[in-house]
Amino acid sequence: MEYKLAFVGIGTVGQALLEIIISKQDELIRDYNIQFSVVAITDKILGSVYNPDGLNPKMILDHISAGKNLDEFEGAENGWDALKTIEESNADVLVEVSFTDVTAGEPATTHVRKALECGKHVVTTNKGPLLHAYNELHELATKNNLQIGFEGTVLSGTPVFSLLNSCLQGNEITEIKGILNGTTNYILCEMEKGLDYQTALQQAQDAGYAEAVPDLDVEGKDALAKAIILSNVVMDVKLDISKVPCEGITNITNEEIAEALENGFRFKLVASIKKENNDVTASVGLKKLPLSDPLSGISGPANAVTFVSDLMGEITIVGPGAGKLPTGSALLNDLINIHKATSRSI
Ligand code: HSE
Question: Are 37 and 56 in contact (CB under 8 A)?
Fold first, then answer.
């Protein structure tokens, strides 16, 4: 079965998916009978290219690596913006990997809505639409018999939604607590080793963990956005983001971290969401956890989430929360899920 993909955004994450599509081509046919054809790519900075018969992903990656704009890519149509690409291309699936705007969720939310209105499935790692319009988009997808995959919005390819949907079916999730931001976890770990805050932040930026505006990380807003997504999707409650207490790591000192450790504790930036009597509350803040707590042992840029459920008690999953291939892996998994869901309904 062939799926035609249209990419909106071709930054690190979009390029990762192209690389994966190339490298996994044989396995995808052998194991799932899937072939992906990239028909359109549009990017605010890197230009656009459309060929209804399919583009060569290797040539696209080489073109971008050479520093050339996609509007100069020959043998295809150029100059299509995101909306024209979504509305007029012959793609079956929109890969929405444009930049994340957590404040308004745009233009990504419009892209996803438009794709679902035009009969296209969606896979995305963009937190904006899930944060601001999860219910609306989920209902639209269901109404139009389409799939929307968003595993990569929380913990990149480390399974969160897939774990809940596949392995914890029938469980009621009563609490979620986790380290949802790699940059801050990295900084806290480095500060524990004696590094100062600024140097640790710089290292996180150099390594590519931090957001383009690192305030989002260090002030807890990235973790908050992910907590709200978890609340929307898992608890089915749309919390008012402005009312959720949110504290970052900007005030912690090396001395406080060292003293906590001497007493058997570690500071972690923890996001928690709790359901009690159908009332859902959430918060993001520094917590002094005993060293025996599973979240206490999470080091470097890794992320972790503990789910508390009525039937299973506590389950903690640990893994990368960011990074090129892990985020590309989330998209690939979402695409394979679309194939499984649509093959079932044929
Ligand atoms: N800046 C984020 C982090 C990247 O550090 O976790 C993934 O959302």
Answer: no
Nearest atom (ligand 1) to Cα of 303: 6
* Cα end-to-end distance, the chain, whole Å: 12
- Hey, whose CA ends up nearest to atom 7 of ligand 1? 322
pLDDT, one tens digit for every residue, the chain (346 residues): 999 999 999 999 999 999 999 999 999 999 999 999 999 999 999 999 999 999 999 999 999 999 999 999 998 999 999 999 999 999 999 999 999 998 999 999 999 999 999 999 999 999 999 999 999 999 999 999 999 999 999 999 999 999 999 999 999 999 999 999 999 999 999 999 999 999 999 999 999 888 888 999 999 999 999 999 999 999 999 999 999 999 999 999 999 999 999 999 999 999 999 999 889 999 999 999 999 999 999 999 999 999 999 999 999 999 999 889 999 999 999 999 999 999 875 5
226 is annotated as an active-site residue = yes
Q: Is 299 exposed, middle or buried (0-12, 13-18, 19+ CB in 10 A)?
A: middle
CATH assignment, 2-157+325-345:
3.40.50.720
User: Whose CA is closest to atom 8 on ligand 1?
Assistant: 322
Q: What residue segments make up the domains of the chain, in order of their start?
A: 2-157+325-345, 165-320
CATH number of 165-320: 3.30.360.10
Q: Say whether 165-320 and 2-157+325-345 share the same fold.
A: no
Which of 97, 102, 187, 209 is the best mutation target for the ligand 1 pocket, counting ligand atoms within 8 Å of the beta carbon and taking the most? 209
Per the structure block, which two tokens stand in for 117?
A: 């209105």
CA distances from 234 to 41, 186, 313 (A): 32, 27, 16
Q: What is the pTM of this model?
A: 0.95
Question: CB of 157 closer than 6 A to ligand 1?
Answer: no
* Nearest of 211, 177, 190, 193 to residue 281 by alpha carbon: 177
